[in-house]
Design a protein that fits this description.
By secondary structure, this protein is mostly helical. It contains 1 helix and 2 strands, in the order ββα. The chain has a two-stranded antiparallel sheet. It binds zinc ion (ZN).
Length: 71
């Protein structure tokens, strides 16, 4: 037998505590984003994280280039 993760049978909104369907990614009452709640995919995907790192590296390289040019 494979041990599958126990499905979260819906739940309640962490903000207004109203019942929310399992498939819903936003609360129908207050519109609260349920991403990242109870094992749902978070708002920050792995690719977004890599883009952030790439952005920092790009800024770092540009700064190094400016310093190299002005010296
Ligand atoms: Zn809500």
């Amino acid at each position: 037998m494979t041990s599958e993760p126990v499905p979260v049978g819906g739940g309640e909104c962490p903000l207004c505590a109203s019942e929310v369907a399992e498939a819903a990614d936003h609360c129908p009452e207050c519109g609260w984003s349920l991403a990242g709640v109870d094992g749902r995919p978070g708002p920050y995907s792995r690719s977004a994280l890599w883009w952030t790192v790439a952005g920092f590296v790009a800024v770092y390289m540009i700064t190094l280039g400016i310093v190299a040019l002005t010296h």
